[in-house]
Amino acid sequence: MTQIDEFLAYLSSERGLAKNTIESYGRDLRQFKGFIDDSYGIQLEDVNEDIILSYVKAMRDQGKANSSISRSISSIRGFYGFAWHEGLMEDDPASNISSPKQEKTLPHVLNADEVAILLEAPATHTPSGIRDKAMLETMYATGMRVSELVSLNLGDIDTHMGYVKCIGKGSKERIIPMGRAACLWVETYLTSARRQLAQSRNEKALFVNCRGKRLTRQGFWKIIKGYAKKCGISKEVTPHILRHCFATHLLENGADLRSVQEMLGHSDIATTEIYTHLTKGKLKEIYDRTHPRAGGEEERGRRESL
After folding, report:
1. Averaged pLDDT of the chain
2. Choosing a second label site near 37 at 20 to 30 A (CA), which of 28, 99, 201, 232?
3. Residue 297 domain-assigned (yes or no)
């Protein structure tokens, strides 16, 4: 068994990592070993920090994305950390290797018209359609994560007071206000559709599937993907799309960043700030359309004619 195989076996038996994750570690480490064999002709235990840095440079020269480079560095650090801990090496050559700064990718969002079309897609004359309408309205009204939405229980929502209680990352509880439209559709769902869908009075889940059990994230994924296709929305629609739309549309309409951070349940405001990048284009569009002195070409032409 090679050193890499020993490390992968450790990840499986001791760390209990998923098969796909272990396979990813294996690919990264075998690519690294191939580089070492071709460029230096030495064993993995003879590698030093400079050699690892040369591999990082080689990956950059190949045009690999920062995310791929970071994953490879993480695999290498994990391998050498394991080897050092097991006494296979006197030093850990990867301990001071840092990952490149990750570029923040802007989430896909729908505009207000596209959201309206998506929210109107469910057939509300059927129990499942009413449920879907209530879920979509709740997602857009609160910006909850999909995992938070499907984890809601009957006692977590108060449609009369207009708020919902959810448990976010790190088991942190937060209270989010809900608009009247979402409250009305949840009320409709509770008084009609859910009674038909739920097969047991003991089921605590707010949103249930056609078998009367708690709806899953995968179930919601299929639902929203189906409605996006039905509506002919060409943009990529993910389960988190309404969360992104919630944050973006609030900021576009003047909400302050701290309030949006609190409603989204972000521990770091830097995470929320990614949505401000999406609104800058909108602000420029509004400025160009409404400010009397914004028309650069027209203003220059007017001055030249004087």
Report:
1. 88
2. 99
3. no
pLDDT at residue number 34: 95
Nearest to 275 by CA among 298, 299, 250, 296: 250
Could you say which of 165, 174, 266, 282 is catalytic?
266
Please confirm, yes or no, whether 229 is among the known catalytic residues: no
Each residue's pLDDT tens digit, 69-112: 999 999 999 999 999 988 888 889 998 888 776 665 667 789 99
Whether 275 is catalytic: yes
Host domain of residue 140: 112-287
Q: Which of 145, 194, 244, 249 is catalytic?
A: 145
Q: Is 169 among the residues known to form the active site?
A: yes
Lowest pLDDT segment from 74-78, 117-121, 234-238, 284-288: 284-288
Both tokens assigned to 194: 């859910």
Whether 284 sits among the annotated catalytic residues: the reply is no
Q: Bridge-partner residues for 174, per DSSP?
A: 166
Domain match, 137 and 279 both: yes
233 and 148 together in one domain: yes
- Tell me: do 126 and 211 sit in the same domain: yes
Catalytic residue status for 243: yes
> CA–CA separation, 187 vs 164, rounded Å?
13
Tell me, yes or no, whether 60 and 118 share the same domain.
Answer: no
Is residue 98, in this structure, part of any structural domain at all? no
Asked whether residue 107 is assigned to any structural domain, the reply reads: no
Same domain, 126 and 246: yes
Rounded to 10 deg, the angle between the 3-13 and 66-85 helix axes is 90
